[in-house]
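Limitations
The structure tokens in this dataset are predictions for the assembled complex, not deposited experimental models. Users should treat interface geometry with appropriate caution, especially where small molecules or nucleic acid strands are included. An illustrative entry is reproduced here so readers can see what is and is not provided.
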Amino acid sequence: MVHLSSVSKRYHGQNRVLSEVSFNLKKGDFLYVVGGSGAGKSSLLRMLATEEFPSEGQFSLFGYSLASASSSRLRTIRRALGYVPQDTRLISDLSVFDNLALSLTLAGHRILTAQARAKISELLNRIGLEHKRDHLAMTLSGGEAQRVAVARALVRAPELIIADEPTGSQDRDFTWSLMDLFLKANSGGSTVVLATHDREIVRRVRKRCAILKDGHISIEEAACIY
Amino acid sequence: MYLLKLSLRPWRMALWSQLFSSLAVGVLLLLVAFLFWMQQGLKTLITQMREEQVMTVYLDPSLDRESEEKLMGSVQALIGSDAPLEIQLMSAPRFIDRLKQTYPDLAREVEELSQDAPQIIPRYITISGILPHFAVEKIKELRGVESVESSKDRYHHIVGAFSVLRWIARVLIAGICFALITGLIHLSRMNAYLHGDALALLKLWGAGTQTLTYPGMISGALVGLIGGVLAASGWVTLGAWLSTHIRSISTLLSGMPHFAAHLAVLLLLLGLFVGALAGLFGTLFAPQLRGEKSI
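Predicted assembly:
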């Protein structure tokens, strides 16, 4: 599903942010991406989300090389992704419900059925924001916006979930609520790539782990200690 | 629905820019309407001046009286019987009769002289109306015609001046339309910056170019539509007065067309179309949409 081979990334001819990164992910895999600030976690996740492209190396998603993918293929790939960016990027002048509904619409659900609406409501309930469904995104706190961003990614039932520090602004209860959502999606067949600083999450939910340091990656197949 | 909400973002974030742009679109469209009406009106006047003429066909003195009617028939056939014409043969007896009404003594003298020299009484055919451009030359070639005079050349300079005015009006229309579309494209590009974050996000979620251009197109169409409504209202309010005023300036201009109410509807549709088109291009050229692989 995800294949990276000797992938490097540099910005404007500067030093490499990512250097010779290689790994593979299959359907249903769960991968933590850990590392200190500036290690290259966000760059790697932006690349996985097709927001950026490698400077060198080979990168393919769902069996298609991103370097040679046509525009329509790229759109199809993007519709199968659920991306939670670190800065949430909600559409500020749409309501919480509309942010989720728009994400769902673009994933292929042209008409918002009662079932789709129920799914959105259920997700909003799970993240404790059903009562704010009609509030504009710009009125949410940082933590609330982060939860909506997670719900927005999960509502499209994506094949690949990429989440960049999705629990960074949450209290313990919501951290585990969100983790529960990711694990549920993972058990439903979605592949999850989750960048985190939270050692407790990594320790308690044991999964495969990619440790980034100065742009270099090392994969821990079992327990992740960093 | 979400895209419609997004398209209204510039109206929330930069209301005055949208309103003043709409006003500018309205004023420019109104100018286009006036210039269009003017150049269409001038076209009518030029056609009238070019085609409507009074022609005097002088008959050859050697032509016998029996052949006059025959020549008259030939002239009529040449011009075409369908043309709206006034055609009259001024024969020698009719000429003397008409002269008698105003100058009886002169008429008597001419009549006496004509006993010896019948050629001193002019005989001619007068034709007035819209005549084909070849009429003068063709009539000249007819047997029994001495010479032909036409009023056509009298309007030559005015026709030239009006033709220049028509060209100026056309150039101005083209210039205004160019300025209108350029201004609207720049507004749409500015609006695309206001939409920037949303467009980038929609693109990342797999939205196609068509979807990405909707907010800009709707937003541009709205500016164009409001401009069109302003221009249409202006035309309905001022158009009738303006056309009446211009028609009353001189008899020559009285041939200008009356106020055309249907232009108001055209202005409205033109505003909508130009706005949507500029919105489409403005968004297509926005940095957020340039290249599928850049977000």
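Some entries come with short summary sentences. For this one: Chain A is about 35% helix and 25% strand.
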